[in-house]
Specification:
Keywords: Glycoprotein, GPI-anchor, Lipoprotein, Membrane, Signal. This is COBRA-like protein. Belongs to the COBRA family. It comes from Arachis duranensis. It is a lipid-anchor; GPI-anchor. The protein has 411 residues and is mainly β. The chain folds into 2 domains: 195 residues, Immunoglobulin-like (Sandwich); 178 residues, Immunoglobulin-like (Sandwich). Helices cover 7% and strands 36% of the residues. The protein has 3 helices and 26 strands. The strands form 6 sheets. Strands 1, 2, 4, 7, 9, 10 and 13 form a 7-stranded antiparallel β-sheet that branches. Strands 15-14-16-17-24-20 form a 6-stranded mixed β-sheet. Strands 21-22-19-25-26 form a 5-stranded antiparallel β-sheet, with no helix packed on it. Strand 21 and strand 22 form a beta hairpin. The N terminus is likely disordered.
Length: 411
């Protein structure tokens, strides 16, 4: 088959476009319209020198507004630039020691001789002498909005076979941040101004000898989850029809062997349904007054084998910024609108409903002000329904727009 010069040029342009499109997603600067500045920042502070290297404190900060790191937690991998080893570590551990006996003939062996060590957080029951402030949470980090104090992790490394001055130390390469669901990409380590440390009594300030930062960002495109994890159903006071979660939103119910009708203790964990999602969200417009209208929202955990700790939900709705009056039963925060995206994040109250227990529900209500005094005109064009819902950072499957409850003709 022969192509003309114009056809060849068109094909070349198309291939270039596809290449640039894929290249844009391979960048470490992934873009999230709901949280454009959210990231995982890894800060590496060299605090002292040793005979053959240095001691460093590594801090991991989750600066993401709504995405948290759930169990089994984070892990961190990098590549040493030279022949460095980890003599000792506090607040974390490497998953493998490596063949240290081949390199070291002494009695004391390094904690890790791996060229590409992978570190994980320690568990909460770790002995006190192995702990460090902000460590030992099993790798779990809350989102920045929910709890900044628990969105940080840290550990201390004693590095050997390394440079012992600012000019001879080599910065590690190829950082990789792993978390459930993947999707994170890290940029190169960049040397920055040394960190300043303030003493607990705030009377003395010290600083790191050397500091470098690594920024990791999340991309829905890179995560490429095989199936969604939640779906949304809708109903209103003015229409008897309930719009269910779309069929097969998360999976299809092929047989009774893939789901359970009740908690039977067998392997299948998700309740049998037409949508087969472990989480379902029901949005009900239940009250309409002259100046206000009220929504009742129910979040159902249909998973018989999992509790969702420190869960959160992000809701896109055109009236959150100017017309939100109150949220009852949960904590909430409004995000700054970006590209006409109006977003609110809701999450549970500690010791009350911050844990969505297996096979249970959490309910809350949202009160909106009206722009005018008409009773139902503000509900036209699906004004009363969310544009999108995210549970624990995953976008829920919404019903198609044509299926939304319609206003009665007499309205």
């Amino acid at each position: 088959m022969r192509f003309s010069f114009i056809e060849h040029k068109a094909l070349h342009t198309c291939y270039c476009f596809v290449f640039l499109f894929l290249l844009s997603f391979s960048s470490s600067e992934a873009y999230d319209a709901l949280d454009p500045n959210g990231n995982i920042t890894i800060k590496w502070d060299v605090i002292s020198w040793t005979a053959d290297g240095y001691v460093a404190v590594v801090t991991i900060n989750n600066f993401q507004q709504y995405r948290h790191i759930s169990a089994p937690g984070w892990s961190l991998t990098w590549a040493w630039a030279g022949k460095e080893v980890i003599w000792n570590i506090k607040g974390a551990m490497t998953t493998e020691q490596g063949n240290c006996s081949r390199l070291f003939k002494g009695i004391s062996l390094p904690h890790s001789c791996q060229k590409n060590p992978t570190l994980v957080d320690l568990l909460p029951n770790t002995p006190y002498n192995q702990k460090l402030p902000n460590c030992c949470k099993g790798g779990v980090l809350t989102s920045w909005t929910q709890d900044p104090t628990n969105s940080v992790a840290s550990f201390q490394l004693t590095v050997g076979h390394s440079g012992t001055t600012n000019r001879t130390v080599q910065v590690p390469k190829n950082f990789t941040f792993h978390a459930p669901g993947s999707g994170y990409t890290c940029g190169p380590a960049k040397i920055v101004r040394p960190t300043m440390f303030i003493s607990p009594d705030k009377r003395r300030v010290t600083q790191a000898i050397m500091t470098w930062n690594v920024t990791c960002t999340y991309s829905h495109f890179l995560a490429q989850k095989s199936t969604p994890t939640c779906c949304v159903s809708l109903s209103t006071f003015y229409n008897d029809t309930t719009v269910p979660c779309p069929t097969c939103s998360c999976a299809c119910k092929h047989s009774n062997s893939t789901c359970v009708k009740t908690d039977t203790g067998k392997n299948p964990s998700v309740e049998c349904s037409n949508h087969m999602c472990p989480i379902s969200v029901h949005w009900h417009l239940n009250l309409n007054k002259k100046n206000y209208w009220r929504v009742n929202v129910t979040i159902s955990n249909l998973n018989y084998r999992m509790n969702y700790s420190d869960w959160n939900m992000v809701i896109q709705h055109p009236n959150f910024i100017n017309n939100l009056a109150q949220v009852f039963g949960l904590k909430y925060k409004l995000f700054t609108p970006l590209d006409d995206i109006h977003v609110a994040m809701v999450w549970g109250i500690k010791f009350y409903n911050n844990v969505l227990i297996e096979a249970s529900n959490v309910e809350f209500e949202v009160l909106f002000r009206k722009d005018n005094n008409s009773s139902l005109s503000s509900l036209k064009k699906d004004w009363g329904f969310p544009q999108g819902i995210y549970f624990n950072g995953d976008r829920c499957v919404m019903p198609p727009p044509h299926a939304y409850p319609w206003l009665p003709n007499y309205a």
